Amino acid sequence: MRDYVIVCGSTVDMDEKKLTERGVEYIPFEFFIGDESFKDDLGKTMPYKEFYDRIRAGAVTRTSQINAEEYIEFFGRILETGKDVVYVSLSSGLSGTYDSAILAKKFLEEKYPKRKVYCIDSLGASSGYGLLVQYLADMKEEGLSAEELCARAEKLKTKINHVFFSTDLTYYVRGGRVSKVGGFVGTILKICPVLDMNSEGKLIPRRKVMGKKNALKNLLRQMCEKAEGGTEYSGRCYISHSDCLSDAEELKKAVEESFEKLKGKVEIYYIGTTIGSHTGTGTVALFFVGAERVK
User: Fold this and answer.
1) Same topology for domains 4-157 and 159-289, yes or no?
2) Fold annotation for 159-289
3) How many CB atoms lie within 10 A of CB 114?
4) Using one digit for the tens of pLDDT, what is the confidence trace for 143-172?
5) Residues with Cβ < 8 Å from 174, sequence gap 6 or more?
6) For the segment 215-248, what is each residue's pLDDT rounded down to a tens digit?
7) Separation of alpha carbons 157 and 282, rounded Å
8) I need a labelling partner for 264 at 20 to 30 A (CA). Which of 47, 110, 175, 235 fits?
9) CA angle, 96 as apex, 227 and 45 as ends, to 5°?
């Protein structure tokens, strides 16, 4: 069986150490604060706390997707070692990076005819994207070939449920997912929009919930209803947050009390600087394997 390396983007929002331990490499995205550019390298260049403090202070952020040339350089280094590449991208419903990776694949497979680059559109984001990558790392350790792993990924990726809410609507208004009027009224009334990732990898507002406590309960209820096996769910569960750790910990406690057969404890991660540039502060997201996502 030909050896291969699993590669992902830094938008998996996980600890670098955990990726390294699983033999997974990541390629950094780029973000900007004003005109100054920074690498999204899992909190090394700019600690997450500093990033969110700058947002609270009024910093304007934007992001830049990975281009084909960057992929060619990154993948090429791996191909030159005699290994193939299995790249798992951020959702094509949120970014054009998957298309850039496909361009790089075509160029590199012509340059290295004995090597292969496989591209998987995760249709996911943040630690939900990371959760998919972790399951694929399990499969690699089980001895699956690159082709077998890709086939399994296609079946699994839309079963990685992403459900989340935000207490700060500023960035959702800026991104057009909440109207200006809706954002103003929602802030006054403390309405938290609850969203999910649909089957096309796009963020969809599903409901409006009054208050953070009810929003947390809504996420837990959705997991009870959708998780594989219901409250008998025995898979992994991740939570990510944009600098609202106490809310994430409250949700973690509720999940662990409701799901006694989880594979390990619920793991909490920061929403990284790329995804955080679009959510702002106050977002809590819950990820688990369950029902097929709907459009």
Assistant:
1) no
2) Hypothetical Protein Tm841; Chain: A;domain 3 (3.30.1180)
3) 9
4) 999 999 999 999 999 999 999 999 876 766
5) none
6) 999 999 999 999 999 999 999 999 999 999 999 9
7) 26
8) 47
9) 85
